[in-house]
UniProtKB/TrEMBL annotation:
Pfam families: Inositol_P (PF00459). This is Inositol-1-monophosphatase. Its cofactor is Mg(2+). The keyword Hydrolase applies. InterPro entries: IMPase, Inositol_monoP_metal-BS, Inositol_monophosphatase-like, Inositol_monophosphatase_CS, Inositol_monophosphatase_SuhB. It catalyses: a myo-inositol phosphate + H2O = myo-inositol + phosphate. Its EC number is 3.1.3.25. Mg(2+) binds at residues 80, 95, 97-98, 236. Keywords: Hydrolase, Magnesium, Metal-binding. It comes from Bordetella genomosp. 5. It comes from the Bacteria. GO terms for molecular function: inositol monophosphate 1-phosphatase activity; metal ion binding. GO terms for biological process: inositol metabolic process; phosphatidylinositol phosphate biosynthetic process; signal transduction. It is an enzyme of class 3 (hydrolase).
């Protein structure tokens, strides 16, 4: 007979968590869209060079946090504008507006990104507890196209309720790749620029749209075959990592020393392209500073 102290901990309720994340994403997106056609009314601050935050970011984050704190007070929260830290069995990672520069310039390519990352040792379903920290819930919502990308660990990934899978493109030469240019932190530009040169010369095409969460979601849906970027934040990539993995793709830390790209250096794609992309960037990648 098990004593209370030796009883297994209850598994995370991923069904309730995905419902909560979807509700929170819609709440945040409603704020964004209320400002989308009156951007001149926004109060905009500069956190750093080319790093902008607007009233829309802050209010959207507040709307997301209200839903998450009301429904899942047991989880930690790490949010772009208000901060926080990972704690407990799982932590929400929130970007209320991924693609702020696009939004402020009237470019309709931005999203709300919400992920739940479970701590190593957490039970998330049948079988053994997680060996490593792992994103287990991902929601990326594009309010302009009304496209809702969702993923649940071990269950699958969907776009507006329809299951999605990554592409089957076999080679870099046949691939359309996504990336993001250095825009805020230029300390890695000497590594990135040769990667970009090689990609331009090798791949069928390279795109830079300006919203990392959507880049990952679009890779999960097969629109891109692979995606790499440096200089991101955990909340930029947490949700997209889970969605892409559940769509049959891979999403790794570029250096291979973190369980998911929490350090903001991402290499990803369908399994064949991601492997080829990793080989392409490896000669230019320096040890993490």
């Amino acid at each position: 007979m098990q004593t209370p102290s030796s009883s297994p901990k209850a598994a995370l309720d991923l069904g309730a968590a995905i419902d909560t994340a979807v509700s929170a994403a819609h709440a945040g997106a409603a704020i964004l869209q209320s400002y989308a056609h009156r951007r001149d009314d926004l109060v905009i601050d500069h956190k750093a060079h080319n790093d902008l935050v607007s009233q829309a970011d802050r209010e959207a984050e507040a709307a997301v946090l209200e839903v998450l704190r009301e429904r899942t007070p047991q989880y930690g929260i790490v949010a772009e504008e208000t901060g926080g830290e990972a704690q407990g069995a799982a932590t929400w990672y929130i970007d209320p507006l991924d693609g702020t520069t696009n939004f402020l310039h009237g470019i309709p390519h931005y999203c709300v990104s919400i992920a739940l990352v479970a701590k190593a040792g957490t039970q998330v379903g049948p079988g053994a507890p997680l060996d490593i920290d792992t994103p287990v819930i991902g929601v990326v919502y594009d309010p302009n196209r009304e496209e809702l990308f969702t993923g649940v660990h071990g269950v699958g990934a969907w776009l507006n309720g329809r299951r999605i899978t990554c592409s089957r493109t076999a080679t870099l030469e046949e691939s359309v790749l996504a990336t993001g240019f250095p825009f805020r932190d230029f300390s890695f530009a000497d590594q990135y620029m040769p990667m970009l040169r090689d990609a331009i010369c090798t791949a069928r095409g390279v795109r830079r749209m300006g919203a990392a969460a959507l880049d990952l979601a679009w890779t999960a849906a097969g629109r891109y075959d692979g995606y790499w970027e440096m200089g991101l934040a955990p909340w930029d990539v947490a949700a997209g990592t889970l969605i892409l993995r559940e769509a049959g793709g891979v999403c790794h830390d570029m250096h291979g020393d973190e369980p998911w790209p929490v350090g903001g250096r991402v290499v990803s794609g369908n399994p064949q392209v991601a492997e080829a992309l990793a080989r392409m960037i490896a000669p230019h990648l320096k040890a993490r500073g």
